[in-house]
Structures
1.
Amino acid sequence: MEKFIINGGKQLHGEVEISGAKNAAVAVIPATILAGDICRIENIPDIRDVQVMLKILSDMGAVIHRINKNTLEIDTRYISSYVIPYEMTKYSRSSYYLLGALLGRYNHAKVAMPGGCNFGGVRPIDFHLKGFAKLGAEITNDNGMINAQADHLTGGVIYFDKVSVGATVNIMLAAVKADGLTIIENAAKEPHIVDLANFLNLMGANVRGAGTDVIRIKGVSSLHGCSYSIIPDQIEAGTYMVAAAAVKGDILIKNVIPKHLESITAKLRECGVSVIEYDDSIRVTSNSRCGQCKVTAMPHPGFPTDMQPQMTTFLATCSGTSIVTDGVWDNRFRYVDQLISMGASIQIEGKAAIITGVPKLHGAPIRADDLRAGAAMLIAGMCAEGTTVIENIYHIERGYERVTEKLTALGADIKKVDVCEDDNSKSVSDAG
Ligand code: EPZ
């Protein structure tokens, strides 16, 4: 089993380059199905969730030509099936975007329910299905496979009771070739929603209002290939910002869009961290113990829920008492037990974590329960005294490209080892 071994207490200094946004890439890649043409996509992060999505498209008949590590040409002219079995969808939650893309192209999609991050319980897709039905699709569940079918799709007004990134993406994909106007109300406004809209419009779609509460989509008869570059990853950038604040040091985070990071910047400054914004980079400096703050994770432009575990970990060693509330997911605090085993003093009360800052965490054997909790464990290990061993690191590698290489270059003492459970022999890989 692969693990990370971290010797904590090493300050972070130097520069780190942010990769393309995972949550944009896993929406843009299935969107290429709608073109039935060749799309050239740049700045694609080389991470597990993207590799899984590309494998699904390849198994469906897409021809994928790798130009370099982060640039692909995806030819979806020869995709012949709208059926995606469980063997193909079980490793990635974002595989449900294939419903919208296949419905949008073929008026028919049959996709097995997905996997992905599990915050204690199956994550619902009722908003997605309600939206497809509004466009005229008939929805059935055939032994765990969602079957969505329509003679033709007709635009309509879709209101989401709760802001949903996934449902907003899926309806955008299904609606771009539907007859007439589709209006999505209470739409998600995350940067990756805007990125998807820009990509769809380059393919010839007519999507207006992405980034606001109301997205208007006028159906077009056909779409075509295009060239596009994925935006930088807001959450990867935020993770390195909070790592520098927690572990201490002075780092320059390159290839970012500072506007996407405004809520994270504001909260770190509130705690006494120095954050300087440049055109496409951001400098984070912290050399002394920081103060407490209150954080409420909300849909964009609020503080991102995908930064909640990392921020809680930083606040665990800040002075005073902090409160972190997650207004998006009901139970995204499972990782707190791991922090408590490292000496943190945190109590969960409903949707909130009450954090009493302690001077130091101490190293311990811990595990990554999901992608962003895993990122938080990396931060905890780097700022703890002593050695921390993290299990289940595949969660982390789903969403952070070359994470050991990037952290080692900043001065962290982190190694990835492959421990054979039976004889405990281990092969230590170098930084990569
Ligand atoms: C996306 O998940 C992200 N994943 C998540 O990031 C992120 O945490 C989440 O958006 C919120 O920003 C990807 O983009 C691949 P939602 P998604 O639909 O689309 C409820 C990461 O770390 N809901 O915005 O699944 C839902 O239960 C991952 O990169 C319904 O009730 O999230 C939740 O409470 C983790 N019914 C809220 O809405 C539905 O049909 C927001 O969920 C859909 C959602």
Note: Residues 427-432 have pLDDT under 50 and may be disordered.
2.
Amino acid sequence: MKNFDDLLQETKEYGVVSEVKFPIIKCVGLPSVRPDDLVIFETGQHGYVTSLTQENVEIVTFSREIVKPGVRVVRTGERLSIPVNEKFLGKVVTPLIEPIFDDDLEITDDVERRPVDIEPIKIDRRVRITRQMFTGVSLVDVMLPLGKGQRELVVGDRQTGKTWALLNFMKTQVELGSIVVYALIGKEKTEIARMRDFLTKSGMMQNVIILATSADDSPSLITLTPYSAMTMAEYFRDKQKDVLVILDDLTTHAMYHREISLLAMRFPGRDSYPGDVFFKHARLLERAGNYDVQGKEAAITCLSVAGTINNRLTGYIVSNLIGITDGHLLFDTELFNRGQRPAIDLFLSVTRVGKQTQNKVARGLNRDMMMMMSRYEEALDFSHFGAELSDEKKTLLARGEKVLHFFQQKHTLIVPHSVQVLLLTMIYDEHFDDVESAEIIRRRDVLIEKYSSDDSIRKEINDLMNNAKDFDEYRSKVKTFQTYLNQLWQQQS
Ligand code: ATP
Ligand code: MG
């Protein structure tokens, strides 16, 4: 990039810093500067123009070093942009694509650059969401399915396992060949390092880019993180790849955005957030979607995290985000404390687009299972009164219990979709009525092992699901498959 002196010669104009309220810097001069232009200070720091008034130019700096009044500043004539390239896969970088952990990251001049904040693509290049985005988590894939191109909120109190569940989703998507762009927004340095180590150890890093800012970074750099992540994702989308973008988290993002706005003396609105915070998030998330890229579908699926306090979904930022996204997975503290992993509340979570992407069998299972589980909830409330329960209710309670137990899984376990559907159908029908929950989990693990090592059984289980006309036909086919499965489970016990 050009330095201060070159640019001064080239543009023949400069401004002088008149007031500093870190990270906001006001300066006078620079007559031809435009909003969003990148500027360079005499002392080496970079910044970009956020607004222009008659008297001065307002600049936000990315650097932690303070710029003093009197320092000169020049414009570069360029918009705020970042380099985008495949070679950033496997790297941990700042939103300006500078390495965080001394990676060797050489960015040559021929690397494409793209602006970080762009207008979302209009409807004409978007296509209907028809492909399911598998997460490997049975609870999500069967009951709360997500589509490729969907925007889903991952919401819950602190320390309820949101990040861990996302790691599971990431692992599944990497194995299925997607690219993952993970934005860590204003996190602790140690968390960033932990994330990198985990991803490296589990062999996922070659398909992942981490864009991270830590709490010590400048607030303006922190607020840039999700935009850069989206720009990076768009690059891969334009290469016809499916991308999963994770923004962890947008409530922190909004807080830093508020900090900058208050310092810039913008008029505060509800909870002191600036009035444009909804617009900012909507414009950002609107960039996700399913696109037609030169005749091939490529999707940017966006999972954004939002933190709540005491499970309240009515906070300003969280309710905004609920309005912008196509549903939410609610992580519940009480479920977490009871030991459920992942602690997703089946009844209060929502998915608006995903169901249309499920195959006929899974959709039927989803519908019938949802009805069964709400009857289970009712029966559970009823049983608290100590009332005498009919045999039918007892069976329902036992099956519901087994379903919830089945949904428990370690964050490193990926359950193949056809195995999820097969075993849940077996719980839904009477096949597992005499089998303990722990034994069902053992059988699941045996089956997953067999599924991944034996091509013929994998084909058989997949065909069973894919060739069935509907859920009812599938159920009757599962009955005929039962003997084979029982043999398998007996052999392995
Ligand atoms: P924060 O809001 O602070 O970012 P979070 O909701 O992202 O928190 P995590 O960091 O994902 O929470 O999880 C908190 C802790 O819960 C983890 O450190 C881990 O010990 C435990 N945990 C979460 N999910 C699982 C799981 N599936 N299996 C085992 N342990 C888990
Ligand atoms: Mg987290």
Note: Residues 282 and 324 are 6 Å apart (CA to CA).
